[in-house]
Amino acid sequence: MNPSAITVSATVDASLEKTWDYWTKPEHIVNWAFASDDWHCPKATNDATTGGKFSSTMAAKDGSMSFDFEGIYDEVIDHKKITYTIADGRKVEILFEGQNGKTLVTETFDPESMNPIEMQRGGWQAILDNFKKYTEGN
C-alpha cells in the first residue's frame, strides 16, 4: 500500500459470515453504500472473485449529483480479505476479522489528490459506519 494510505475500521456486532455477505451481495450493498442520509445507492453489481468487477452508484436523493464507484478485484479470500483497484488506479484493501461473534472490518485506501485527507477519511468512515448500522439492524 501507499505510505500515505488512509485506514478506517469498525467492529460490527454480527458474525463473520453475515458481515461478509452484507459486504459483498448487491441486494445488501444498495442499502449501505453511501455516506449520509441525503444520499442513496440506487444500483450495485458485484462479482466478488479475483478478477471480478464491481460497481455501485452513489447518488444524492434530490437528483443533483451521482457517480459510479467501480473497480476490479485483485484478490478475494473468502471471509478474510479483499483487495481491489478503483477505476482511477487507486488501491484498496479490506480485512475481515472474526472476534467472538463480532467482526472487525478494516479498510485501507490510497487517497485521491482533490480532497483533504481528513475529508476522505471521514467519508469512507461514514460509509463504513452506515454498513455497520445496516448490518446490525437486519
Any key phrases for this structure?
138 residues, Alpha-D-Glucose-1,6-Bisphosphate, Chain A, domain 4, seven-stranded antiparallel beta sheet, 7 strands, globular
Assign an overall shape: globular
Quote the beta fraction. Answer: 35-45%
| Helix run count | 3
Give the tally of structural domains.
1
Strand count: 7
Compute the separation of the termini in Å. 33 Å
* Average pLDDT reading: 97
Strand order of the largest sheet: 1-7-6-5-4-3-2
Regions with little confidence, pLDDT below 50 for 5+ residues: none
Q: If you consult CATH, what is the topology?
A: Alpha-D-Glucose-1,6-Bisphosphate, Chain A, domain 4
The percent of residues in helical segments reads 10-25%
CATH evolutionary superfamily: START domain
Major sheet, described briefly?
A: 7 strands, antiparallel
What's the Cα radius of gyration? 14 Å
| Structural classification | alpha+beta
User: CATH architecture, please?
Assistant: 2-Layer Sandwich
Give the class-level CATH name.
Alpha Beta
What is the H/E string? EHHEEEEEEH
Pfam families: AHSA1
InterPro entries: ASHA1/2-like_C, START-like_dom_sf
Protein name: Activator of HSP90 ATPase
Family: Belongs to the AHA1 family.
Summarize the structure.
With 138 residues, the protein is of the alpha+beta class. Helices cover 25% and strands 42% of the residues.
